[in-house]
Input
Amino acid sequence: MMQEILYPLLIPFLGAIAIPLLSIILRKMGIERARDYIAAVIALGNIVSVVNLYQTVSTQGTITFYLFEPPTGACLRVDMLSWFMSLVFSNLGFLVTIYSIAYMEKDTGLDKYYALLLALIGGMNLVVYAGDLFTLFVAWELMSLSSYTLVSFRKETWEPVEAGFKYLIMSAFGSATLLYAISLLYGLTGTLNFEALHQALLSTEANPSLYIIIGMLVIGFGVKASIVPLHTWLPDAHPAAPSSISAMLSGVVIKTGVYGILRILLLAFPVTVLDYGTIIAVFAVLTMTVGNIMALLQEDIKRLLAYSSIVNIGYIFAGLSVGMMNGVGEAAATIGVAGGLLHILNHSIMKGMLFLCAGAFIHELGTRNLDELRGIGRKMPVTAFCFFMGCLAIAGVPGLNGFVSKFMIIWGAVKGKQLVLAALTLINSAFSVAYYLRLIHIIIFAEPRKEMEHIREAPLPILIPLVILTIQILFIGIWWEPAVEIAEKAAEAVLKM
Amino acid sequence: MIGLNWYLAASAILYSIGLYCLATKRNLIKMIIGVEILLNAAHLNFIALSTTTAGLDPLARTYVIVSIGVGAGVIALALSLTLLVYRHYRTLDVRKMRRLKW
Output
């Protein structure tokens, strides 16, 4: 019964260990490519184990799994929010693993690639399943190490190495700040367990040291989530990585930072005493505005999509900040946080797909420049259709999934009487349509260049994830009730701790 | 007996030195040393705060030892990336690189 929550961690981690060993045997047998399919099967097993957990989590509310005796030591704690996040991670992780079968076929050292990809998925699952701050920190570093290595995976060229180094230095600074904040919290309360922390700070009074801890936590998690003054690594690291890894980074890895801020702030610091929602809202608006302006100026398709990820982090924080404000009312807080969480799911689907489509174009043509990609959509109809749907969804066209979550975020802000926040989010959302339309125009409607005569449709392992993600976009866009219901349950789990 | 506040002040100063190092140094190895100083500031804070009049909290020491191990992994990766950077550019100066703007 309790062991169920170990499967989403054990399957990817043991898989990560097994893949390099298996590939030695498979190489001797002369069927080395079988390793790619085994990795995909392991990622599928991870999804199955996560989905399997839903019944237990929804009936019991919170499952706590102690590795040692209760008061001390590491523990795992799974509630609806953790489950929701791990579903988001596993979904994109599986599709990216399938995509990599064709996309990475010309690279060498693929046993390490798949081991690191599975370790990344497992590390993210452990981040959201952690029941105390130290387990969270160790999982955080495990996930970060995998992602640094994957960003600089194609180490023969200068760009991934340089971007990976920049990512590593900024992210290591964030981790050190996070550890410092954790040590201060430990000094204040004498514990790092989530439940005990919550109890210890329940009746606290506002004092400067708590604000310092909040600031350090927001900086520590914010580097990974790329809140604007700390975002400078993202537009370099995401384009430099292989496209499959860009999809993982933009789609899910930056969301772990969002999870960290949401979970730790709402857990440890009572909103009624320390009113920090407004500060988060200011950063949210700053993030989306800067991201929008920078995205308009880009000439590189992956760099444009990376800036668009920063914009979407802004929307997510706008939704979450409503839940962190004092006196907005329970209904508004639930809708705002649920909107933010639903946008995490939707953005992972949409941005994951846009990066995978961009990767398919790059795989066929070998360039990232938007001028040189002009009209490539006419040669690759299926990929182009998926790209078109992704652009429309992320621009917020009604009937597709991006609209549902953006509507919930703005509705939550209006219901909580944060009209300035709602208006700025709406203006930014409208503004962002400009560059999505530009993308659609360049990729699909422009006349193809002469050099594209030989371009054919992408191979099947690339098309399968794209089609599955398009179906998910349409599914959540048209029949949104189940997704909204799960997001609301997750929001309630974190708000009513 | 040195009071707790001295340790906290020392770790705050270490943290500031690490930040200064990251912000001003232009050599990749020196930046990695800055990251190491930042991490050690947090470790010192942990150990200082775990010491009370009643005794030591063994949990905090476990945390610090695990964290030192994790930090060593990050630093090792950073150094191996530095090696790759050197192979591409034949220099460790950040300003000589094309796109690293901090």
Summary: The longest strand of chain A covers residues 63-66. The radius of gyration of chain A is 22 Å. Chain A touches chain B at residues 72-73, 134, 137-138, 141-142, 144-145, 148-149, 152, 155, 158-159, 161-166, 168-169, 172-173, 175-177, 179-180, 182-184, 186-187, 190, 192, 232, 236 (CB under 8 Å).
